[in-house]
Design a protein that fits this description.
Elements: H1 10-14, H2 17-20, H3 23-26, H4 28-47, H5 55-70, E1 78-79, H6 96-106, E2 114-115, E3 120-121, H7 129-136, E4 140-144, H8 147-159, E5 163-167, E6 173-174, E7 178-179, H9 180-187, E8 190-194, H10 202-210, E9 213-219, H11 235-244, E10 249-254, H12 272-277, E11 282-286, E12 297-301, H13 303-310, H14 313-318, H15 322-336, H16 340-343, H17 345-351, H18 354-368, E13 372-379, E14 389-397, H19 402-410, E15 416-417, E16 419-421, E17 424-427, H20 437-449
Parallel strand pairs: 1-15, 5-8, 5-9, 9-10, 10-11
Antiparallel strand pairs: 2-3, 4-12, 6-7, 11-12, 13-14, 14-17, 16-17
Bound molecules: pyridoxal-5'-phosphate.
Pyridoxal-5'-phosphate binds at residues 146-148, 151, 174, 178, 219-220, 222, 252, 254-255, 286, 297, 383.
């Protein structure tokens, strides 16, 4: 049977005002390729027996395709989960000054590797270094792309083909495939496991040194906890022992808080500064966990060791870019000024008072005329502080299907991410940024009206 109408040509479609009107948004070449793609698809559908769509349908398909192709896969969302360092949602949101610094230095040229006073080539690695040493008390600092890279680089530079002692309780796997034993193997270091999963003694470290260990590595148990019959020597004990044999101690601190989590109502944990004070020769940590800055791997510690790391060939392939250095410097400045609790979103979110969260959830309830305000927990997340939560207040809504309601929330132009518990959709004010609240409530209203 002959088709009822012919498949239109590329040119005839391009001449239609509705298609040529798309020029401003997408440009000629892109439209041509979308038209071709749609026509190819139609041809193959016709050959398998389908009828030829109408001109309006074809136009719609071209428009939809262009829309889909131009929607960024990386887009902004509203995090109503209460998980502060949500790995899947981009970990730490940046502070305003970090964003301004990125715009200031990156919309044009910058002194990334230029020394203004001498009018010649300068060094990229000076940018955040001064701020880092001032804040942590370290002799020197180096910034790379992420903490996994920092640990790998430090080991490659300091322990290639050398034995590295690490407790079996610290052979951790962080999300995203970062496994300490794997990283050690790739860096060329030889893993010397000591102690047992639950107990490691100072004598185990001493034996490892007798067996030829040339570096002691400690890794934070970022995302799990060993409880019960456990023991591990303190950091000062380990560093004192290692230093007696002139061996460096490298501490992969993971999250790397500059402010003691205890002051935020969490369990106490060693800060970067305290780890250095307790004798760690190098401390590696992330820029976008508890620090609340951009993705980065930060290494602070002894100048001699940092210089060795800087000189390693891997450093070039792991170095931080200018956006990162601009944002990190601005974030660190907030700490130096003592403003972090107000201006750095991660710290601000962790610092929020329960009464304040309760009042906010209450305002949401009265504005939406739906749900109940209930007590709950916000998770810290990001593999930062294992199992730790902060008390919070939630707006709990009861749609017919929590799953379908959440799906609807994710379809808004600024998608809303919420969690489900016991068939309820829970919305936690803690992680909703102040300037997203209006959009959140407007869209919740729409979603609720569709119930
Ligand atoms: C998170 C973490 C890492 C990896 O840091 P990234 O910045 O994500 O690369 C490494 N070690 C520990 C102990 C961690 O907690």
């Amino acid at each position: 049977m002959k088709p009822l109408r012919p498949i239109p040509s590329v040119d005839s479609l391009l001449n239609l005002p509705t298609i040529s009107g798309l020029q401003q948004d997408y440009g000629h070449a892109w439209i041509v390729s979308a038209v071709r793609e749609v026509l190819d698809e139609i041809r193959s559908q016709v050959s398998s027996g389908e009828t030829i769509p109408t001109e309006e349908e074809i136009i719609q398909r071209v428009t939809n395709l262009l829309k889909t192709q131009s929607t960024a896969t990386l887009q902004s969302v509203i995090n109503a989960t209460g998980v502060v360092l949500h790995t899947n949602l981009g970990r730490a949101p940046l502070c305003r000054s970090a964003l301004d610094a990125i715009a200031q230095t990156s919309l044009g040229f910058s002194t990334l590797e230029y020394d203004l006073s001498r009018g010649q080539r300068g060094k990229r690695d000076i940018h955040a270094a001064d701020l880092l040493t001032r804040l942590t008390g370290a002799e020197a600092a180096l910034v790379v792309n992420n903490n996994a890279g920092a640990v790998m680089l430090a080991l490659a530079a300091l322990a290639n083909r050398k034995k590295v002692a690490i407790s079996r309780s610290q052979l951790v796997e962080i999300g995203g495939g970062f496994r300490i034993p794997e990283v050690m193997r790739l860096s060329g270091a030889k893993l010397l496991e000591i102690g047992t999963t639950n107990r490691t003694h100072l004598a185990d470290y001493e034996n490892a040194i007798q067996e030829g260990a040339q570096l002691v590595l400690l890794a934070h148990q970022s995302n799990f906890k060993i409880v019960g019959f456990t023991s591990t020597p303190s950091l000062p004990e380990i560093t004192a022992l290692a230093h007696r044999y002139d061996l460096p101690v490298v501490y992969d601190l993971g999250s790397g808080a500059l402010i003691d989590p205890e002051t935020l109502g969490l369990e106490p944990d060693l800060t970067v500064q305290a780890s250095l004070r307790h004798g760690a020769d190098l401390v590696c940590f992330s820029g976008d966990k508890l620090l609340g800055g951009p993705q980065a791997g930060i290494i602070v510690g002894k100048t001699k060791l940092i210089e060795k790391i800087r000189g390693h060939a891997f450093y070039r392939s792991l170095r931080a870019d200018k956006l990162c250095l601009a944002a990190l410097s601005a974030t660190l400045l907030e700490y130096l000024k003592g403003m972090a609790a107000e201006t750095v979103p991660v710290i601000a979110m962790l610092s929020r008072k329960e009464a304040d969260l309760r009042a906010q959830a209450g305002r949401w309830r009265s504005e939406l005329q739906a749900g109940q305000v209930i007590a709950g927990e916000s998770a810290i997340g990001g593999g930062s502080l294992p199992g730790q939560t902060l008390p919070t207040w939630l707006l709990a809504v009861n749609p017919k299907s929590a799953r379908k309601f959440n799906q609807r929330l994710r379809r808004f132009e600024t998608p809303i991410i919420a969690r489900i518990e016991n068939d309820q959709v829970l919305l936690d004010p803690r992680t909703v940024l102040p300037d997203q609240e209006t959009v959140l409530l407007a869209n919740l209203k729409i979603a609720l009206s569709e119930e």
